[in-house]
Amino acid sequence: MQESVYSENGDGKQGRVKPLVAIIDYGMGNLRSVQKALEKAGGDARVTDSPRLLRQSQGVVLPGVGAFGEAVHRLRRQRLWGPLKETLESNKPFLGICLGYQLLFEDSQESPGVRGLGWVQGSVVRFRFPKQSANKVPHMGWNTLRINLNNPSSCLRGVPSGTYFYFVHSFYPKPDDATWVASTTVYGRPFASTIAKGALFASQFHPEKSGDQGMRILRNFVRQLKS
Fold this sequence. Notes:
Elements: E1 20-24, H1 31-40, E2 44-48, H2 51-56, E3 59-62, H3 68-77, H4 81-89, E4 94-97, H5 99-102, E5 105-108, E6 120-126, E7 139-144, E8 146-147, E9 164-169, E10 171-175, E11 181-187, E12 189-197, E13 200-203, H6 211-223
Parallel strand pairs: 1-2, 1-3, 3-4, 4-13, 5-6
Antiparallel strand pairs: 6-10, 7-9, 8-11, 11-12, 12-13
């Protein structure tokens, strides 16, 4: 497989080595904006479709915008599905963003019959509101988090409840095990806006589009990586 790396993020000078962050490239997601934000957060962020680089990295990011089924198809076609599962099994620091969060679950109403990674038990379901509801689909714009103090995540360190983050989505995950939930957000009903366990953190919102507090999450993620 040909490796696609868009940035080496270095000038060849001696100094402190930045932790290598592999951003999985399967053709769906705001790859460059995520890359630039992670670079600003202190990581050597590389967009790649190379299983080898995934294994070599200190942390892995799975972004994504688009349909659940198409994402699964592309990850399998590019032979990234197995290495992605290996990453999760290794307990390497992992960040899932938007669709990259949803792919961690077993299935999605968006793509019936398509199996997700199944790392988290539960399904991804669609927002449904009465026609007269003020809540529209997709859920788009700024909304707040309520932090679950019973499941503290290092990625949310310094982020208070009530902080605003930027969302764009029509579907949301419902984990069967509530102990995964690191924060909730209310849009017509409460839903799990982030999950966390071990070295894994995933968010339905886009930290790279969420200003200073989004950058705080990305810096927290980079800090936990081995350099």
